[in-house]
Design a protein that fits this description.
The protein is α/β, with parallel strands linked by helices and 684 residues long. Helix content is 53%, strand content 11%. Bound molecules: adenosine-5'-triphosphate. This is ABC transporter domain-containing protein.
Length: 684
């Protein structure tokens, strides 16, 4: 808003009104960044698909340039390759990519580039159980490091929230934010370390027109701060379209337009494609790209030299002779259209001579010098100063240029651990439902098997009780992890890609975060059932019983982590219980070890349930336990040693059971980490 100042001149009695134009909101802590221009040349992306491994070209030798200080839109019909191009430019996709990407004229060093850029994905990947301010605090702690004081971090948060219009929602839980507010929060979180390059995948998807406008205005103001802002967009309204500085349009994996948004309509006019009055130029270009006005894609690709030309205001359009010299063979080869080459050749000539010259007011002299110099430097491989540009940027711009992350791994671990503990406290299902289930089932089992522990006539029922403990502890800790862990993955993928923390720190934090809660629930459950069922009230037996139960729940939780890391919730919820069946069958409760066929005995060694069951049976009946009470004429299992003999556990060792459970625990935790790393890589 403009401000009005009234100066009352007492002598003359005249009132002078001074209008001071409003100052754009600035982010004082976000200084202007050194400009970073990205150029890509002959970018090809190929995937193999089907059983015959046929290759499919998704990007076909596209070139282009994205400048700092500009808001660039990557546009195109559905399936044109927008997201693919964005994923390649961000470094999210690397395999199957050919071609060159340069930063300020030097070959891109991906590791350094990722420190300069951030990628805000389409779905706002936010943790639901944090308030806006808490989410910002986590982001500042992880991204700004310990060199910056708490006060400064607080200032950063306040300033960004103020600028992005989130100040009044700072105490709102992210799950309660509107779509537009979530989008702004996603931007706010990444703005914390002021990256000079920001990529956005469909930032306006799911927003109403007003929120779209706000969102694009925000991106525009970020670009005005010297940043390179690139976003994919489906089909912007005319109002939004005007706000973009630069447009890069793809169709069928090729570039059909690159240049200023203002020059789009005149440029299309030169090719005989007249955008009707009052028609949204963006929609018109999409319609042309979809073939609604005939097969114009090849004409456009040739005219723009598949992205090698850049149409800019005040600069001439591509020269006809340059168009003739276009390396069409290369384009056609890459786009699997070589058979039509002769036809295209004719077509481009006719376009050049007829249409392009008709456009008045343009002298067809030279193509954009800058982009040609850029592209020729890429082609000649003049990369002696490779990485210098990004090096300088990192030295000038980012707090700790030498490190991969802004904070140490220990600090990352600590911050993620604190955040996870905060979620856990707020997560009703994870905490209170689990607590309630352990107490309720504890009392239920206690009542069902009430006072049987010292009764020689009820030993078989007591063994059933021991087995049920294993079953209950296994399923509660396994299923909760299978259900909750995969939901964390999208946020992990985003935060890890944007260099908030290493996978190792994250994994260690989430691995340790749930252990105390699981331990408390298990102690409560075991305490209730042990006392109510009248198991021997000796401290060392209770300790042994509890440690076997605790280890079973930790191991089952690890199984949940492996399954959660390796597959999605639907598959995991079905497969994990099914996969547990052999372990239950070979636990020693249903069939004693001697009765198992030799060729199947190896399964018992893998069955963690067996070690847990054996451990609790030894704690209950081993170690010279005195004879049980018998209120009937004959009690076969009066002597605890008889029970152990029947279970084939006479020579069993409790310490071995514990060691086996600890080994299985570590093997599973390491496997879960390996699966998680594989999942992060394969998701790209
Ligand atoms: N891994 C893959 N295997 C096979 N085809 C793929 C693969 N990845 C992408 N594609 C194909 O590449 C094309 C471009 O996909 P991309 O997601 O980049 O399109 P888009 O322009 O972003 O589309 P939309 O606007 O609908 O999101 C599509 O036809 C898609 O089916």
């Amino acid at each position: 808003m403009n401000s009005f100042v009234l100066n009352n001149n007492k002598k003359s009695g005249a009132v002078k009104v001074m209008i001071t134009p409003c100052q754009p909101k600035t982010l004082s802590h976000l200084p202007k960044r050194p400009p970073v221009d990205i150029a890509f040349s002959d970018l090809m992306y190929t995937v193999t698909e089907g059983t015959k491994n046929t290759s499919k070209n998704i990007l076909k030798s596209v070139s282009g340039r994205l400048r700092s200080g500009e808001l660039t839109a990557i546009m195109g019909p559905s399936g044109a390759g927008k997201s693919t191009l964005l994923n390649i430019l961000t470094g999210y996709k690397c395999s199957g990519v050919k071609g060159s990407i340069t930063i300020n004229g030097h070959e891109r060093n991906l590791s350094q580039f990722r420190k300069l850029s951030c990628y805000i994905m389409q779905d706002n990947q936010l943790h639901a159980n944090l308030s806006v301010e808490e989410a910002m605090q986590v982001a500042t702690s992880l991204k700004l490091g310990s060199d910056i004081s708490k006060d400064s971090k607080y200032q950063v948060i306040q300033e960004i929230l103020e600028t992005l219009g989130l100040q009044e929602h700072r105490r709102t839980m992210t799950s309660n934010l509107s779509g537009g507010q979530k989008k702004r929060l996603s931007i706010a979180l990444e703005l914390v370390n002021n990256p000079p390059i920001m990529f956005f995948d469909e930032p306006t998807s799911g927003l109403d027109s007003s929120s779209c406008f706000q969102c694009i205005s925000l991106l525009k103001s970020l670009s005005r701060g010297g940043r390179t802002i690139i976003c994919t967009i489906h089909q912007p309204s005319a109002r939004l379209f005007e706000m973009f500085d630069h447009l890069y349009t793809l169709a069928e994996g090729q570039c059909v337009y690159q240049g200023s948004t203002k020059q789009l309509v005149p440029f299309l006019g030169t090719l005989g494609l007249e955008c009707p009055s009052y028609h949204n130029p963006a929609s018109y270009l999409i319609e042309v790209s979809c073939g609604e006005y005939g097969d114009n894609v090849r004409k456009l690709v040739t005219a723009i030299n598949n992205g090698k030309y850049d149409i800019q205001v005040g600069k001439p359009f591509p020269q006809p002779e340059n168009l003739n010299n276009v390396n069409q063979k290369e384009i056609m080869k890459s786009s699997n259209l070589s058979s039509n080459f002769i036809e295209i050749d004719k077509l481009s000539k006719s376009v050049d001579s007829d249409s392009l010259l008709q456009y008045s007011g343009n002298t067809f002299s030279k193509p954009d010098d800058a982009i040609n110099t850029e592209l020729s430097s890429i082609k000649t491989g003049n990369l002696n100063n490779a990485d210098e540009a990004t090096d300088t940027l990192l030295k000038n711009g980012l707090p700790s240029s030498q490190q991969r992350y802004a904070t140490s791994e220990f600090a990352q671990f600590w911050i993620v651990l604190s955040r996870t503990l905060l979620f856990s406290r707020r997560d009703w299902t994870l905490m209170y439902l689990r607590l309630f289930a352990h107490i309720l089932v504890g009392f239920l089992i206690g009542s069902l098997y009430y006072d049987i522990g010292n009764d020689g006539a009820k030993v078989l029922s007591n063994l059933g009780f021991l087995f049920f403990n294993m079953l209950f502890l296994m399923y509660t800790s396994m299923t909760i992890t299978i259900l909750s862990f995969p939901l964390e993955l999208p946020v992990l993928i985003k935060e890890n890609f944007n260099r908030w923390y290493s996978l190792r720190s994250y994994y260690l934090a989430i691995t340790l975060s749930d252990i105390p809660f699981q331990a408390i629930f298990c102690v409560m459950y075991v305490g209730i059932v042990y006392y109510m069922t009248s198991q021997p009230l000796e401290m060392f037996r209770f300790g042994m019983f509890l440690s076997a139960c605790l280890l079973i729940s930790f191991v089952a939780q690890s199984v949940g982590l492996v399954v959660g890391a390796a597959m999605n919730v639907q598959n995991g919820v079905f497969l994990a219980p099914v996969m547990s069946v052999p372990f239950l069958l070979f636990s020693g409760f249903f069939v004693s070890f001697d009765a198992i066929p030799i060729y199947l005995r190896w399964i018992t060694y893998l069955s963690y349930i067996r070690y847990g069951f054996e451990g609790t049976a030894l704690a209950t009946y081993g170690y010279n336990r005195t004879i049980l009470q018998c209120h009937q004429i004959y009690c076969h299992f009066k002597k605890p040693s008889t029970t152990l003999r029947e279970l084939d556990m006479t020579d069993a060792s409790f310490s071995l059971d514990i060691v086996a459970l600890i080994i299985i625990f570590f093997v599973l935790r390491i496997s879960a980490f390996i699966f998680l790393r594989w999942k992060l890589k394969s998701s790209r």
